[in-house]
Amino acid sequence: MADKPAPKPGHFLPGGEGEQGTADARRTGGSAPLAAPTPRLGGEAPPAPPQLTGSRIDSRRTTLSGSRLGPPPSDDRAAAAYREVFHPEPIPFVPKQRSKGLIALIVVAALLLLGGGATFAVKVLSSYDGALPNPMGTPTEKPAAGAKPTQEPIGKGTPDADVVGKNAIYSAGRLAVANCPEPAFRPTSKENVRSYYQSLTACLDKAWEPIVTKAGFTFRSPNLIIFDDGDETACGVQHDLALYCQDEHGGSVTMPWQNIVEDYPKSKAETRAEMAQSFGFVYGVHVQNLTGVAEAADNLADTAVNKNAQLEMQRRSALQAYCFGAVFFGAAKASFPLRGELLRQWSGLIQRRGDEHTKDKVRDHGSSKSLALWMNQGFATTNPGACNTFVAASAKVS
């Protein structure tokens, strides 16, 4: 089989001898026409592309119209769609009709809210005193040198030294004669001890209330606590000591009972004298509390120049409480007789209560000599004015 001749240059190029259907293709415009562009929104559909039929291409041609650049013409249906999406017409505002009553209610509520908020803001901001500046707060102004304060203090304060040394209780007069027999409850049980002190409290209240009130002070009865050894009371954990403490009740008298019940069978007169004398002392502290003397004396003791001066102030306070107790028993001597064995035991307790006889020897209540001086003075005069230990010479409060 003879070899075919080699193709010439350009044989396979369009229009060359190697192109399929050269004659028909040239008559129909060459290669297949381009497909029509994507139709526009709402536009007419482009003509159908030429259909291939066998090895021939459909002779119908497709022509391009319009441009794909920029927005569609204004009369085109696509323009309306364009404006609806990108430039919609504004919705007109139509005001709704409101009830006049509702409008008035809303206004009142708004005013109340604003008024309350303003009040709160004024209260908070006016009290602002932080380290950072507060433009809405009231600045703290320092008074100029020599200027008077904008608000004068109410009344005039009384120095502690005047409270204890010039107290109105000293000029209120003598206690009236008190009809107060010794309580008939014998200390044989805790309840009997409680009943004894309750009866004695009632007698002391009746005797002291007129004098305290006359001096210009408010009277109140002390709260009575009978404690077991080791109980925690208003005065702390207590062990066999009669104490008085200021508390939410306005003052509490706290009294032991167990040793009293144990000692009574051994020495009845001494135990009776002990109960009366110790209760008279703590009630005397209550009178000091009612008249402000107790607090003022504590303040003076806390600011004493040294320890000795502090102890002396404490002795002045304790000796006055003993004296106040003796004032009552002097006023009740006709009904609560201190005579015979009971008087001897009473005097013996005074001698044994001096600081020099205590275990720790702390000189905070007074020596036996000072105790006898002030208690005898109070008993004989029945006048609280005789118990002003705070203006006495140091030798009398040793």
Task: Report what the structure shows.
The chain is mainly α. The protein has a domain of 234 residues. The protein is built from eleven helices and seven strands. The protein has a three-stranded mixed β-sheet with strand order 3-7-6. Strands 1-2 form a two-stranded antiparallel sheet. The chain has a two-stranded antiparallel ribbon with strand order 4-5. α8 runs antiparallel to α9. The longest helix has 27 residues.
Name some characteristics of this structure.
3-stranded mixed β-sheet, single chain, mainly alpha, 398 residues, 7 strands, 42% helix
Largest sheet report: 3 strands, mixed
Q: Stretches where pLDDT falls below 50 for ≥5 residues?
A: 21-46, 48-68, 101-138
Question: What is the straight-line distance between the termini?
Answer: 160 Å
Quaternary state of this entry equals single chain
Task: Supply Rg.
Answer: 56 Å
Alpha-beta classification: mainly alpha
Q: Number of DSSP helices?
A: 11
Mean pLDDT: 78
Shape: elongated
Q: Beta-sheet strand percentage?
A: 5-15%
Helix proportion: 40-55%
SSE string, helix = H, strand = E?
Answer: HEEHHHHEEEEEHHHHHH
Strand order of the largest sheet: 3-7-6
Q: Please report the total strand number as a whole number.
A: 7
